[in-house]
Amino acid sequence: MKPCPEHSESRAADFKKPGPADAPAWRRIISFWLVTRVGLSLWALFCSASLPHSQLEKQVAVWPPSAPFGAWLTRVFLEPWNRWDVEHFLKIAERGYRAEDGTSSFHPLYPLLGKLAGLLTGGNELLGLFIVSNICTILFLISLERLAAFDLPKRAAQRTSFYFLMLPSAFILFAPYTESLFLLCSTLCLISAREDRWFLAGVTGGLAVLTRQQGIFLLLPLVCEFLQSSGGIRQFAKVGWASWRKALNLLLIPSALLAWLIFRAVALSDVSVDWQKPQSLIYGLLISQSANAVVPNQSFVPPWQALLIAIKSFNTTNAIDLLGGSFYALVLGLGARRLWRMRVSYLLYAVVVTIVSFSYSTGTPWAYMGLPKHCLLAIPLVFLLAEWGARQSVHLIVSVAGALWLLVLTAFYTFHLSWLP
């Protein structure tokens, strides 16, 4: 890709350390979020009314409002989004973890916050989860623009929030899922690293780990950023205790994972590794041996092997996953050189998240369950789209395709068929 026209702006402006979002930025992002939120809610409600899934959806009509009014409000506003993994988050929020039901494969921070938010709403955990994910989405979009402002011109940085919501499976940020909280923690972690605030980087990275397994991969860009800020490996080796003490903050990330593993091992007896099979080390530590209660076939294999499984068992679900996942791979392939020049840590993180996403196989018949949702976590890829979006043709293509992705995947999600997020 050729450099976008906006790079004619002064480099001093491009690389100026960004400050907190101002009032216009908050209004712009909240307005954009609100329009998308209302539009997707109406669309999900229409899909839910057309093909109701839960008992509440089948028993309570969308219109006219009926008694009890609280049940009608739940049916209209919350129940269309109560699908798939939300069931497990609700179980954790309502009664805690159980070793036998697969809930231990889900990290604790999101359901814990949902529980706390639910207490503030009269004990409605589903509403609590909904509130947490939507607040985190707004804060994430604000933080994303701030992170982008370190390396992109102002107008390109302001496009990142829009383009992120146009990515395949970004609709999940409006559902009671973990992605919005994870993306918020990850973005704050990267911002803290860019600002040389290593304790905060370690804390937010640890919170990301307590939200999703992929948080452990934040260690890679953080180590890269730390070495770069220290002048390289040789220079770091010469420095005194103060710099080593800063580096120790990065251990907060694996420490969070270790704390979660200890809880699983002690409270749930749910940590098992076969040392003769290296694959089990990744699977046993990052996921859970009881995860098969949620998804029967799960494994980490070379990405080409997982891809072959998906192609051999080709169906609608695999087609959606491959199409969405291929988009991220295409953006990474086209923009790898630009990411390298922008920030080596960004390229490293995007490559690792994408490869791991393509290496996670769920066997047959759904070989790549939620592949676009996993690739969504490769945050730096949206910076490339924000740059390329200076061209009207690119902007038009991404906008139209993104809107279609939002509508189609929200429909599949609400219908509870054909595609598993």
DSSP summary, beta strand count: 2
Enumerate the strands of the largest sheet in spatial order, edge to edge or round the barrel: 1-2
Using only C-alpha atoms, the radius of gyration works out to 21 Å
Helix content: 55-70%
**C-alpha termini separation:** 31 Å
Q: Please tell me the overall pLDDT.
A: 87
Low-confidence stretches: 8-15
Biggest beta sheet attributes: 2 strands, antiparallel
How many individual helices?
A: 21
Order of SSEs, N→C? HHHHHHHHHHHHHHHEHHHEHHH
Assembly type of the chains comes to single chain
Strand content: under 5%
Q: Your description of this structure?
A:
By secondary structure, the chain is mainly α. It is 65% helix and 1% strand. It contains 21 helices and 2 strands. The protein has a two-stranded antiparallel sheet with strand order 1-2. Helix 2 crosses helix 21 (392-415), helix 9 (179-194) packs parallel to helix 11 (219-229) and helix 16 packs across helix 18 (344-359). The two termini are 31 Å apart. Mean pLDDT is 87; it is low at 8-15.
